[in-house]
Amino acid sequence: MKVSKHAMKPVVLVTGCSGFIGTALCASLRKDYQVVGIDRRAGPPCFDASHCGMHFIKTDLLSESATHEALRSAKSAFGSDLASVVHLAAPYCDHLHRFSAAAEKLTVDGTRLLLAGIRRNFSNVEQFVFLSSMTVHEPCRPGETINENSPLETRIGHSRHELRAEKIILQSSPADSNAILRIAGVYNSHCRNLSLANQIARIFENRLTGHIYPGDLESGQALVYIEDLTDAMRSTITCRDRLPPSVTILIGEDETLSYDHLQRLLGYHIHGEADWETARIPFVVAKVGAWMRVRLSKDMKPLNSPWITNLAGSHYALDTGKAARLLGWRNRRSIRRILPEIVRFLKANPRSFYKTNRLDLPPPMDIRSAVGQSGG
User: Fold this and answer.
1) CB–CB of 278/181 below 8 Å?
2) CA-CA distances (angstroms) from residue 237 to 8, 81, 143, 200, 324?
3) Residue 50: pLDDT band by 50, 70, 90 thresholds?
């Protein structure tokens, strides 16, 4: 049934709407915008599109016909004008995630099909927003920061794919303006960040690998709290008439904790140890050890995986001055302040923490021992 266009809110189309970031964004936008969400799945059992104030359309962005049909359905319901398209379906991967061939296809080909479908179905698109990653930039040295003009990382697979998607958008987007948001690692008060969750689990279980690291202990990776990220994305949409036709903006916290500092904070909050010790080990030892564990053991947590050690010690600290100038955005939360909340969630229900963060549960005896050692 076609919705009356009279008294309608501006329409925002969100791909990847049922994911971690998409669900939060749609909930943030529902008061002031008519949100049309597109995804290949309806989301977890707790996902409720109506609760998010969203019109949900299930589709596969890798299918040209399915994408066209989904966009045709959105046009039929809400008309041919879009205030903004927010493209989240390209999977976010920081340097600690494997970037599969399927992910590459969604990032590049999915973006191309989406743009073609939008051009075919909508006559007026004010803005296109693409969520990219800070890791398309080369890492910097501890004490330095990365800005939007910093060198790009073209040697690593996921960086190349995201840069290709960015280029496709800037060359063929039908929107009046295009915004590329290169974001830091996202987390919330239950963690929901794979690399951070693994680091927390190693210290919680008091494993040997919670005391070693194959990279520079003074390096760290910028993070951003989920609500701060959605605030930045909402501001990007709100400011669409004032932004340059094509703009790239880094989004992350203004403080990046070193790996060693984060280790010490975790040791204190989890075990009450004020001086948690972490030793640096040779890179080749970590890589070989990770390779052997992946193949010989069911336990992948100790050193995560060999693709992780490839960039261990890379430093990503962000200069977010451009976000402040153009969007009026600064982070209001920080991992330093949120970390105690994450640890409280872990101690209150370790099993929920492991399940939420998709970690393999250790044996019950190990959990009881870890809870006892941490004072939970």
Assistant:
1) no
2) 17, 15, 32, 35, 15
3) low
- Every domain of the chain with CATH number 3.40.50.720 lies at 11-184+224-251
Question: CATH number for the 11-184+224-251 domain, one of 3.30.70.1650, 3.90.640.90, 3.90.950.20, 3.40.50.720?
Answer: 3.40.50.720
Mean pLDDT over each residue of the chain, to the nearest integer: 87
Which helix (H) or strand (E) segment is 248 a member of? strand 246-251
Pairing of strands 127-133, 177-183: parallel
Number of H helices, E strands in the chain: 14, 13
Q: Cα(first)–Cα(last) distance of the chain, in Å?
A: 54
The β-bridge partners of 248 are: 180
**308-337 pLDDT per residue, tens:** 555 578 999 999 999 999 999 999 999 999
Smallest CA-to-CA distance from 137 within 108, 106, 162, 171 is with: 162
27 Cβ contact list (under 8 Å, min separation 6): 51, 52, 53
pTM for the predicted model, two decimal places: 0.90
Q: Quote the CA–CA distance of 271 and 202 in Å, as a whole number.
A: 12
Please give the helix or strand (H or E) that residue 38 lies within, else none: strand 34-39
- Kindly give, in sequence order, each residue whose CB lies less than 8 Å from that of residue 303, ignoring residues fewer than 6 positions away: 209, 214, 286, 289, 290, 293, 309
- pLDDT(256) > 80: yes
Q: Are 223 and 251 in contact (CB under 8 A)?
A: no
Region class of 325: left (phi > 0), else alpha (psi between -120 and 50), else beta: alpha
Which residue from 157, 121, 159 is spatially nearest to 137, judged by alpha carbons?
159
Q: In this structure, what token pair is assigned to residue 367?
A: 């959990």
